[in-house]
Specification:
Layout (H helix, E strand, L loop, with lengths): L5 H32 L7 E2 L3 E9 L3 E8 L4 E8 L5 H18 L8 E7 L2 E7 L4 E2 H6 L7 H20 L2 E2 L8 E4 L2 E4 L6 E2 L19 H6 L4 H16 L17 H4 L4 H10 L9 H18 L1
Helix pairs in contact: 4-6, 4-9, 6-8
Length: 305
């Protein structure tokens, strides 16, 4: 009978117990969050001025609602910070960090912070309601298709926003199809709940609760305290857009993992751009470098049509 490494066995058991505890805590928090949602249900008046119209979204860090500011007579977004993990102490830290970053921002494509307040022990703030629909909604609900040229145009609209953030020392770290709004050709970048200050290489400290054991490498790369984390996220966003026009010709098990480079019929320059964004080749150091590459690609694609 083979010997069992008791140390390894105990480590595996301990890891299993930790996963169960984390899962139970998450379910409990989500249940409590749902209960607290009753105070923010449609028609509720929050803080004596914000009339809740509907829930807008929900993530691991909080819940957002579309409201009418009855004092300023305008629509706005109300965010209630309530992270799934970490309790009150972490909620206070996340709230202070996001508010501090929003207070520094002045850009037409990023929501303006309106007011911060506590409501019945809930950490809240209100901000500008940006126009447009999320790329997530456009792709999966409205089934909008983006050509290679159109996909690169969306990326080109986003790059100056990312460049602005990096120039003032801020990383978004959560650029995704859910956090990009499109209104015609105008793109907006929302949700800075995961944003962090850009610090010298090797000195940034990640929140240990952001990454769990077993999380995919993609998530780990997105959470790095480095500009490449935002560029990597832009690469994935671009892939989502490009795949909107993809149709599998002969879908079978053997072809499941052939990869985007073989599945997508793209300009060689677009493929190289993606490889650099996704860190498969020499990564970009600054957003302006990506802007230059995208501009050249747009010219080439326009000339070929």
């Amino acid at each position: 009978m083979p010997e069992v490494d008791q140390g390894v066995d105990n480590m595996a058991f301990g890891s299993w117990i930790q996963q169960i505890v984390r899962s139970a805590n998450k379910r409990l928090h989500l249940a409590l969050r749902g209960w607290h949602d009753l105070r923010f249900r449609e028609g509720s008046l929050i803080h004596g001025r914000y009339l809740v119209r509907r829930k807008l979204g929900e993530g691991s860090y909080g819940v957002t609602y579309v409201c009418t500011d009855t004092v300023a007579d305008r629509a706005c977004v109300l965010k209630r910070v309530t992270p799934v993990r970490g309790g009150r102490t972490r909620a206070e830290l996340i709230y202070a960090r996001e508010v501090s970053i929003l207070q520094r921002l002045q850009h037409p494509a990023i929501p303006t912070l309106y007011e911060t307040f506590r409501y019945r022990n809930h950490l809240c703030f209100t901000m500008e309601l940006m126009p447009g629909a999320s790329l997530d909604c456009l792709l999966f609900q409205q089934h909008v298709r983006f050509s290679e040229y159109q996909s690169l145009r969306v990326l080109r609209e986003l790059l100056p926003i990312v460049s602005y953030l990096h120039a003032i020392g801020i990383l978004h770290r959560d650029i995704s199809i859910a956090n990009v709004l499109l209104d015609g050709e105008f793109a907006a970048l929302i949700d800075l709940g995961l944003a962090r200050e850009l610090v010298p290489a090797g000195t940034g400290h990640q929140d240990p609760l952001e990454i769990e054991p077993g999380d995919p490498s993609e998530k780990v790369l997105r959470r790095q305290i480095d500009v490449t984390s935002d560029f990597y996220a832009l690469g994935h966003l671009l892939l989502f857009l490009l795949y909107s026009t993809y149709t599998a010709r002969e879908h079978n098990a053997a072809a499941d993992d052939i990869g985007w480079e073989r599945e997508l019929d793209l300009h060689p320059g677009t493929k190289k751009l993606l490889r650099r964004l996704l860190l498969a080749e020499q990564p970009f150091g600054q957003a302006c470098e990506i802007i230059h590459e995208v501009d050249q690609l747009l010219k080439a694609l326009h000339a070929s049509n």
